[in-house]
Write a structure and sequence with these properties.
Number of strands: 7
Number of helices: 11
Radius of gyration: 20 Å
Shape: globular
Order of helices and strands: HHHHHEHEEEEHHEEHHH
Length: 258
Amino acid sequence: MLAYPGAIALSESTLNFLATLLADDRAQRQTWRKLPPHDQALLVLAHLRNGDTYEQLAEGFQVSVGTVYNYVREAVELLATRGRSLLAAVWMFAWTQSNFLILDGTVVRTNRVRAHNRLYYSGKHKYHGINLQGLMDPYGRMIWISEGLPGSIHDLKATRMHDILHVINSAETIHLFADKGYVGGESDHLLLPYKKPANGELSDMLKEINRTQAATRAPGERGFAVLKNWRVLNRFRGCPRRVGKFAQAVLVLEQEGI
């Protein structure tokens, strides 16, 4: 087996943040690991950011594949628990000077799940995956990401299952911009583009409103784009039910590990 040096496109502060988190958790639980917290953090970041496989990491860090799995799972769980709930994220945002958020969804590609083939298949994207919903601020910075749902679930249904519109309604002063995939959402705070009539055209005024809304929503694309810089989310090869936890862990690293 050949070994080679590698690099992770992250700052030293991200490594230190995760290493400190792991060290504090070990001290609190009075537990021991073969690798020190710094090395475990490096291993986890190599998996999340670079998409290095468990086998590659096991060889590079001279541990077993099972140990790599446990190290990654432990760190992801620890990070995910630091993420804000939907209610906490919305209410923290309510204290800012902005009065709207951007709602968007994506489907993280996964390997085919033989036992649940249809459940995880996204007809829109034409591949198997997990549906994630996210809220972005007006600058495109993600403030919250949902748990994962099977890829066959439509964005609007996912929004209802996560109770997003109810939480936005309770904030009163916040509006939510979203695309046509959310048409039918029951909320006075949900701002959607106008759909073209079945037998006609939109008026010039409605077309201009749609263009303005599209420009407002455009920064929201940045939220998921930043998350997918973490290659583990380009095509998730583990259990599909774990995608949400990994996405939440990555968001915490983006928000706090700087």
